[in-house]
Each structure stands twice: as structure tokens, then as C-alpha cells.
Amino acid sequence: PWCVQGMPQEQRSLHRKDRRRHSRLLPACLAMLAASSRSRVLSGQRSFTFSPQLPPLALAGRTPIPAVAIVGTAPCARHRLACAAFPEANVAIASATALPALIGAPVTAAAATVALLLVSGGKFVSLGLSGTAALYIIISFTEYIYHRYVQHLDLNRVGLYKWMRQTLGAPTLLGDFHVLHHRETLNSMLLDPVPVEEWPDVTVHRGTAATWLSFVKMTCCIMLPAHPLLCALGWSAPFAALAVVMATLLHLMAYNSLHPQMHGLPNVSFEQGPPSLGFGFQESAVAGLLRRYHIVHHQTYAKKNFNVCCPLVDHLLGTFATKGSVA
């Protein structure tokens, strides 16, 4: 290598020994670096430093690792590890005098790996929990607002919207298929179909299932508040967008697993919309709880329990009920 040219034979021999020791140390070093980009583990007088300013060089004759190199400016142990993959890294990890013990111990590599999993895993768990909570809250508000104020026309009774209709000419919301769905639902949750003349474009699921168009609309509605919030919590923009799409899809798959079957209708296939969720979900205790929750919505004549799959906002706004007025 270029850094040993012109060295005396004795120094070259020392240099080769150092290279072998450093190459065995490299996996543990990288694990410790990834575990904490700001931590320092100092020992003795000399230390090895990860420096992003150093030019990455190839590890000749060894397994290539992207953007990582051993940079030698002098023989013996005064080498530095450069890692361009971690731009914020500034980690001093071991002294030259501590290298033999650190290199030769498999336990050290295992400990470094465990430290990496604990630290990075803790961060991922934190992001996952905060993101899941944020998405649940936003989806709960979305389904509540749409179900109550659009499908059940409560927006027409809101004072501000009344003023907008009278002053600004805002349109009056009209009943859609959901109103017809409530009209034909009996107290037993089975259906007494309305005449075809009243519902000429009815499908096999009679307005009880979400379609792919519903999925696109709901994804857009959830994306507006959820994406910036997830980014503020520390999610990257692409993963935040992907999380919104997947959460919306999972929500509508759960909806299509519950609502049609409650009214004696078949499961939803992929061609008809987000497919009904499998994996035993329909027979689970959670599904049974949500069914009872929605039954009360029908038994209170659409005055309570507007949430369907994500109960929360009903509790916050006082529209939760445990039983309806119809036995």
C-alpha cells in the first residue's frame, strides 16, 4: 500500500500486524459507531477516531464495506477509522494499548451488537409507538367526522355551516347510500332491502363496504394532518407517507371485515375494495367488541358511537353509549 512505501522492513512488519489487528476490530467498531454517533469510550493516552473529513479508501484484500476505510498516515498503531456513512460521527473508541484485548474477544463484538440493537432498537420503538398513537388519533377523528357530519348530515345543523349556506351559498348536504343503509337495517342488524327503484346503483355489499375509491379519498384526508406530524416526530418523509398509506389500508381492511358481515353480507374481495382482514381477526375478541360498539350506533338511531374501528373521539365528545334504546 501507498502508506508503507519507503518504510524499513521492521516498520513494514509492524504495519502488517497493525492492519491485521485493525481489520479484526472493524466489525465491533462499526457496531459501536452505529449504536451511538456521539458517545466516547476513552482508554489510555491514544485513541482511534472516526473522522468524516478523511477520504474513504479501499480495504485491499478484505471484505469491502461501503464508505469505510483504514487510513494510515504513519506505521504502528497511529491509524484512524473513517466512516463517511455516518456524517455526524465523532467517536473515540479505544486506545492502542487496549487494542489486543478488544480485538481478540468475541464477547466484545457480541456486546457491541447488543448495544447497537438496544440503542437503535429503543429509538425505533419510540418512533413506532409515537407514530402509531398519532395515526390512531387522526384516523379516529377522520372516521368520526366523516361518519357523523357527512354521512349522517350533521354538518347541515352546525351553526357556522348554516351561516355559510345562508350568506355564502354553501351547498346543503344531501343523503347518500349511507342513509339508505340505515333505512333498511333492522334491529337484528339484518337487512330489509329497500326497493331497487330507490337505490338503482346498489352493489352486493349494499353500502356497507369500503371501495378502492374510498381508500384513495381517506388516504388523502389522513395524509394532510398525519404526514407533517410524523415528520415532526422524527420520521423520514418517505416512511411517513408509507405509514399513512399502510395504516389507512389496514383500517379499511378491518372495516371490511366487520361491517358487511354484521349485516349478513359476504366478505370483500380484492376486486371490490380493500379485502377483508384475515388471520382470525373476525373471530377475535377485538372484532366482537367493535361489533357490539357499532350495534349501539344503529340502536340509538345514529345518535351515538360514530367511531367504527378506532373508538376514541366518541369518548372525547360525549357521543359514546354502551347500549341502545332498542332491546
Give a brief rundown of this model.
Helix content is 50%, strand content 3%. With 327 residues, it is mainly alpha-helical.
Number of strands: 2
Taking Cα atoms only, what radius of gyration do you get, to the nearest Å? 31 Å
Order of helices and strands: HEEHHHHHHHH
Q: How are the strands of the biggest sheet laid out side by side?
A: 1-2
- Mean pLDDT figure: 75
Strand content: under 5%
Stretches where pLDDT is under 50 for at least 5 consecutive residues are 35-105
Q: Percentage of helical residues?
A: 40-55%
Largest sheet: 2 strands, antiparallel
| Total of DSSP H or I helical runs spanning 4+ residues | 9
What structural category do the secondary elements indicate? mainly alpha
Q: What distance separates the N and C termini?
A: 87 Å
What is the 3D form? elongated
